[in-house]
Predict the structure.
Amino acid sequence: MDRRAESLTAPERRFACTQCGACCNRAPELELGEAGALADMFVLRLMLRIYSLPRSLGDYVSDLPRELASAEFYERKRLLGQFAAASWPAKVQRGSQVVEYSQYLSLSVLPLDLGTGSCPALEGDSCSIYARRPLSCRSVPLHYSRPAAAAVRDLDAFTSTPGFRCDTGPHAPLVIASDIVDPAMLAARTEAVAQAQADARWKAAIVKAMKAGEHGLPTPREVETNAAMGVLTASMLGAWRVAEATRLIKPAEAERLLAAQCLLIERETQRDGLSANALATMREMHREYSAALAEQPTAVRGD
Ligand code: SF4
Ligand code: SF4
């Protein structure tokens, strides 16, 4: 076994956050159901992404040693099944070979990157919403959607990022001992799966609306076409309209969300150091949300 493989299978890692703030360099990704409670903090965008995984372990490519790669494959399959909104088969040409894949459509929320180089919730080096920070922040440095089998590799990659001042010394708490053992990280992982289950009906309704071309949502084909170019984001209006139409939220809640986003955008457009792209997107969102609010029979903004 080479030295890297040996290091990856070494069973223990220690970690403590020194609250240097370096990894809070942009707003975090949220599960769909988390976004409503943070509509006063983040300019929310629906994120649509495709993940691909070979159907068979024999076609799976990993940089992990063989037994870990196998565990990683099966765990990825399970996690994608738990978090994805939909999946379908696909065939991919790999050299002279055609490989069968499963494609998974992921629906989550990615707050708009304001281009300032830091999360809008970061004040100095501290998180101003620490008690209600999202699950992805609570599971740092081991994101809950990543296989535990790859935890050592992922933790090493995270803590060796230039500028990150995480404590991995002998006095830091043990977070990996063959498996993840840190109670807070384990709790965030369990809660994230529960959140994905709670969001399942909403995600299924969004997929149905996407297939029908309703509520201004992109079609699954558009997401697939865009996959090679990166992440596709869209306004949250379509997702909230679907939630309203399927009675997952009441009209008053949809109004509250739109009004909260309008107020936030009015505040955030005054921020220094915004990128031109962020400013243009926020102005467009404000126009769209204001028009939607004006159409509501009982607008809550009072204007
Ligand atoms: S929400 Fe808080 S912990 Fe999460 S990235 Fe922002 S500042 Fe950091
Ligand atoms: S880079 Fe490490 S020490 Fe700094 S805030 Fe992030 S987790 Fe904490």
